[in-house]
Amino acid sequence: MTHSPKWFLPVLILIGALLSAPVVSGGEGATGSAAALQTVTLAVDGMVCTACPYIDRKSLSDLPGVRAAEVLGESGSAVVTMDPAVIDPELLVTASSEIGFPSRIIEAATP
Questions:
Q1: Residue 35 has pLDDT above 90, yes or no
Q2: In CA terms, which of 28, 53, 95, 105 is 20 to 30 Å from 42?
Q3: Between the CA of residue 44 and those of 12, 23, 62, 67, what are the distances in Å?
């Protein structure tokens, strides 16, 4: 009769636990339901250089509940996909305005 190494049983238990754990996908603030997401379009003023859209996008993307943000300097707009159960659309306006890019909501739609 051969003996298994001492680490063998704990590793099997760990593998079993990992295989039976539920799988959760999605980014920060994910609720697991794509139907709950909302797309908000902002008019953004004050973007005068090529770095401005990147700065505003970073500010918006870092907010809890924001799944994606695209900021277009040439059109002065931002399109944000967010979870309205986590963040109010008005907070997008506040975040953009606080870093020097006054903005306003021009469209809010549920995809």
A1: no
A2: 28
A3: 55, 38, 17, 19
Quickly state the pLDDT bin for 40 (edges 50, 70, 90): very high
89-98 vs 52-61: helix axis angle to the nearest 10? 140
Architecture category of domain 33-109 in CATH: 2-Layer Sandwich (3.30)
Quick: pLDDT tens for 19-32.
444 433 344 444 45
CA–CA gap between residue 22 and residue 17 (Å, rounded): 10
Q: How far apart are CA 103 and CA 79, in angstroms?
A: 12
**Helix residue spans in the chain (DSSP H):** 8-20, 52-61, 89-98
Amino acid letter, residue 21: A
Q: Is the dihedral of CA 103, 104, 107, 109 positive or negative?
A: positive
**What is the residue extent of each domain of the chain?**
33-109
Which one is predicted more confidently, 68 or 1? 68
